Structures are given as structure tokens and as C-alpha cells.
């Protein structure tokens, strides 16, 4: 996997190097990394940084959007409700960030999708540096802990009919605002998702652009 990842990243980076060599420089992340590569970053580090961006930023939002579109296509009533909500608020205009607070159903579709289809079903491992007690479990120093958020989000004790995709569970009055954190789709603690806000915006924009094409 490591070899394939490095090969794909090298190919992508080579294309960008060719662009830069042809004199076409852009003020963007890869150009910054390559200019740092001359002094502080190794080729391997640049490869990992580019991969990280693809996996953490693009892959997650794309997967979320695809599952949302899949569920909307299977649930015409939800699709109509979302379509009308967007039409009422935005009309022929493109959806803008300031519209988002007026689009509770779109928000509910997003949260329900990351609950049922979290793109990171098991969050990155945590390492216990010292003996710890958590949630009634004793965790000896040196253990690695994998939190299965998919399992938590399918837990019948925490969610009503968890296997059902039902955005309504995230509508006003039907949920506690802490439920938005209950999915833990962005992980938790100091290393939680650095792009959570960006992700909400990206996925919602994609949903909208795709929903106009259904
Ligand atoms: C639906 C979309 C997304 C989901 C569900 C998601 C989920 C996650 C999860 C579960 C983690 C691990 C958190 C932990 O270990 O506690 C993570 C880390 C991270 N995410 Fe996201 N993510 C999404 C989108 C994005 C976007 C759009 C960006 C960038 C703009 C991003 C950047 C990052 C970064 C940089 C980290 C590593 C943070 C660190 O290690 O300190 N993510 N994400």
C-alpha cells in the first residue's frame, strides 16, 4: 500500500513540477510544498502531505456526498423536501454560506449521512502513555485504542432504529444539539478533524450542486 501510495503521489507531483518548470506558478499548497522541498521538506514528506490532503479533505467529502445522493435517490420524499427547502430559500440563486442557517433539512441530511456512513468509521489509533480509566474500562499504559464510531452510531441503545437513514432525527425539537457531536464523525479531542467546518460547507455545496442534476 505504501509503495502504491508513493507511486501515485510521485506521478501527481511530477505533473505539477512540469507545470512550474514551464513558468506557470500558482499561489497554492503544492507550489508552497515544492518550494519548501528545496530546503526543509524531503520528497517523502511532500508525498505524505499531498496524500493527507487528498484522503482527509477530498475523499471524505466526496464519500459523504455520494452516500447522501444514494440515500436521497432511494428516498424521493426526503429528496423533495430538500429540493423545496433549497428552492424556497435560494430560488434560482446558487447556495451561499449565509443561506446555511436557513436550511435545517440540508443540515440534517448531512449529519444523518455522516452518522450512518462515516467516511472514517474507525478513528485513528490513540496510544495510552499511562495507565488510564475510560468509560469504565481500564487501559494499561502502552495500549493502542481504536474507537469504532460506526459501531457507536449503529448502537440501538443510543439511536432509534440506527440502521434507518432518517434526516428527520436531526431536525429541531427531535434532537438534543449535543447529538450533532454524538456521531463523533470528526473524531474528538486535540487531534479531531482540522477541517470539520470546511467539511460541512464542502459537503453541503456538493449535495446542492449534485441535487440539481438528479
Ligand atoms: C465529511 C468530511 C470529513 C470527515 C467525516 C472527517 C473526519 C475526520 C476524522 C474522523 C479525523 C480523525 C480525528 C481524530 O483522530 O480524532 C480527521 C482528521 C483530520 N481531518 Fe477530517 N474529515 C472530513 C473532512 C475534512 C476536510 C474537508 C479537511 C481539510 C480541509 C480535513 C482535514 C483533516 C485533518 C488535517 C485531520 C488531521 C488532524 C490531526 O491529526 O491533528 N478533514 N478527519
List the helices and strands and how they pair.
Blueprint: H1 2-21, H2 29-37, H3 43-74, H4 76-90, H5 104-116, E1 126-127, E2 132-134, E3 137-139, E4 144-145, H6 149-153, H7 179-182, H8 196-211
Antiparallel strand pairs: 1-4, 2-3
Helix pairs in contact: 1-3, 2-3, 3-5, 3-8
The chain binds protoporphyrin IX containing FE.
Residues 56-57, 60-61, 64, 114, 118-120, 123-124, 185-189, 191-195, 198-199, 202-203 line the site of protoporphyrin IX containing FE.
What does this structure look like?
This is Ent-kaurene oxidase. The chain is 53% helix and 5% strand. The protein is mainly alpha-helical. The strands form 2 sheets. The protein has a two-stranded antiparallel sheet. A hairpin with a 2-residue loop joins strand 2 and strand 3. Helix 1 crosses helix 3 and helix 3 crosses helix 8. The longest helix is centred in the N-terminal third of the chain and has 32 residues. The chain starts with a helix and ends with a helix. Bound molecules: protoporphyrin IX containing FE (HEM). The site of protoporphyrin IX containing FE (HEM) has 25 residues, from helix 3 and helix 8.
CATH 2nd-level architecture of the domain at 64-211: Orthogonal Bundle
What's the CATH H-level superfamily name of the domain at 64-211? Cytochrome P450
Which structural class do you get from the secondary structure elements? mainly alpha
Sheet bearing the most strands, described? Answer: 2 strands, antiparallel
> Termini, distance in Å?
35 Å
- CATH fold naming of the domain at 64-211: Cytochrome p450
Q: What value does the average pLDDT take?
A: 88
How many strand elements? Answer: 4
What is the CATH class designation of the domain at 64-211?
A: Mainly Alpha
Strand residue content: under 5%
**SSE pattern:** HHHHHEEEEHHH
Helix content: 40-55%
* Attached small molecules: protoporphyrin IX containing FE
Coarse morphology: flat
Helical stretch count? 8
Runs in which pLDDT lies below 50 for 5 or more consecutive residues are none
Radius of gyration from the alpha-carbon trace, in angstroms = 21 Å
Strand order across the largest sheet: 1-4
Amino acid at each position: 500500500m505504501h509503495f502504491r501510495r508513493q507511486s501515485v503521489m510521485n506521478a501527481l507531483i511530477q505533473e505539477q513540477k512540469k507545470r512550474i518548470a514551464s513558468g506557470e506558478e500558482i499561489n497554492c499548497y503544492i507550489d508552497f510544498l515544492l518550494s519548501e522541498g528545496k530546503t526543509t521538506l524531503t520528497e517523502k514528506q511532500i508525498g505524505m502531505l499531498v496524500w493527507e490532503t487528498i484522503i482527509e479533505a477530498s475523499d471524505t467529502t466526496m464519500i459523504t456526498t455520494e452516500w447522501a445522493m444514494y440515500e436521497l435517490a432511494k428516498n424521493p420524499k426526503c429528496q423533495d423536501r430538500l429540493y423545496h427547502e433549497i428552492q424556497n430559500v435560494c430560488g434560482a440563486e446558487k447556495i451561499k454560506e449565509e443561506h446555511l442557517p436557513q436550511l435545517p433539512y440540508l443540515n440534517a441530511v448531512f449529519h444523518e449521512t455522516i452518522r450512518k456512513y462515516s467516511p472514517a468509521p474507525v478513528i485513528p489509533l490513540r496510544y495510552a502513555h499511562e495507565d488510564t480509566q475510560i468509560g469504565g474500562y481500564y487501559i494499561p499504559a502502552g495500549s493502542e485504542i481504536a474507537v469504532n464510531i460506526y459501531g457507536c452510531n449503529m448502537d440501538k441503545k443510543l439511536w432509534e432504529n440506527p440502521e434507518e437513514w432518517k434526516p428527520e432525527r436531526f431536525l429541531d425539537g427531535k434532537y438534543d444539539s449535543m447529538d450533532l457531536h454524538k456521531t463523533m464523525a470528526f473524531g474528538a479531542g486535540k487531534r479531531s478533524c482540522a477541517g470539520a467546518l470546511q467539511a460541512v460547507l464542502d459537503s453541503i455545496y456538493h449535495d446542492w450542486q449534485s441535487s440539481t442534476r438528479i
